[in-house]
Amino acid sequence: MLFIVITEAGERLASTSAERYLLIYMVNVIAVIVMLFITFFVMFNIRKNKLLQEQLRQKQAFESEIANAKAETQEQILKDIGWELHDSVGQLLILGNMQIGPVGMKMPEEFQHHVAELQHTLKSSLSEVRSLSKSLNGEVVLDAGFVKSIKNELDRLERMRFDTARLHVVGDQVPMTKNKDEVVLFRIIQEFLSNSVKYSKAKNINIILDYEHDYLVVRAFDDGEGFDIKKIEKGSGLINMQSRAKLINAELELHSEPGNGVELMIRYPLAVDF
Q1: Could you identify which of 64, 139, 225, 245 might form a hypothetical disulfide with 250, taking C-beta atoms 3.0 to 4.6 angstroms apart as the criterion?
Q2: How far apart are CA 20 and CA 193, in angstroms?
Q3: CA distances (Å), origin 178, targets 23, 66, 67, 247
């Protein structure tokens, strides 16, 4: 009898031990499956993120190439217009001034002052055409230099449109390492000035070039009518300025309120050697 009880207890113990081993085996199998699933999920996400990053990089590279091609095309068009102004319109104004001289000598004395005024107007027009043609040619901008080109543009606009157009330079001037950036930055400022002439009804305009430690901060502002920047639609002028700023890794902000004029702020990173 005792033998039978011992035997039954042994069988129950063996059964319990087998079930325990089976349970441990099943838990280990489930753990391995979970680990494989987690590993697969992590690897899938890593691969997915790499693909998304590569697609984003390709998209940004494509957009950058398009923007560069667009900027180069615009620059070539401006250069062609500048040449055309200088060679065609300029020559016509010179010819007109030369032809009016002999005619004026044959005019009665009471009309001589009108002839003199006309000659003065032609000479002034020729001077403005030459100044404009230079500002449209990127090579001339590079030859003159960034700061000098802005000063020339402001002087031209002051003669034509504004009561005052002033340039203020703060800090020591640091040359830009990329010639293309000088032209692009000048075009952004030129676009702002053009919009001020066309829309702002401003009388005064100021540009500040602040050479900080590792940034050139450009602030341009007028005293025109201004506008509600939240309601204004993005026109080609603003889009051109923003796309050009991206080309040179610059930050661009435009601020305006009705009655308070318009302010443009550009932060251009300078490559400074230490």
Answers
A1: 245
A2: 85
A3: 71, 19, 17, 12
Q: Which of 10-14, 41-45, 151-155, 176-180 has the lowest mean pLDDT?
A: 10-14
What whole-number distance in Å separates Cα of residue 43 and Cα of residue 80?
A: 55
Is the C-alpha dihedral spanning 183, 189, 193, 195 positive or negative?
positive
Q: What is the residue extent of each domain of the chain?
A: 1-136, 161-274
Residues 152-202 pLDDT 10s: 889 888 887 889 999 999 988 888 888 888 888 988 998 898 888 888 888
User: Rounded to an integer, what is the distance from CA 99 to the centroid of its chain?
Assistant: 46
How far apart (Å, rounded) are the C-alpha atoms in residues 116 and 166? 31
Give me the residues paired with residue 206 across strands.
166, 221
* Residues in contact with 250: Cβ distance below 8 Å, sequence separation at least 6, in sequence order: 185, 266, 267, 268, 269
**Cβ distance 166 to 207 under 8 Å?**
yes
- Which DSSP symbol is given to 206? E
In CATH terms, the fold of domain 161-274 is Heat Shock Protein 90 (3.30.565)
- Going 257 to 262 to 268 to 274, the CA torsion angle's sign is negative
Could you give the dihedral angle defined by the CA atoms of residues 51, 53, 57 and 60, in that order, rounded to the nearest 10 degrees? Answer: 120
**pTM given for the model:** 0.62
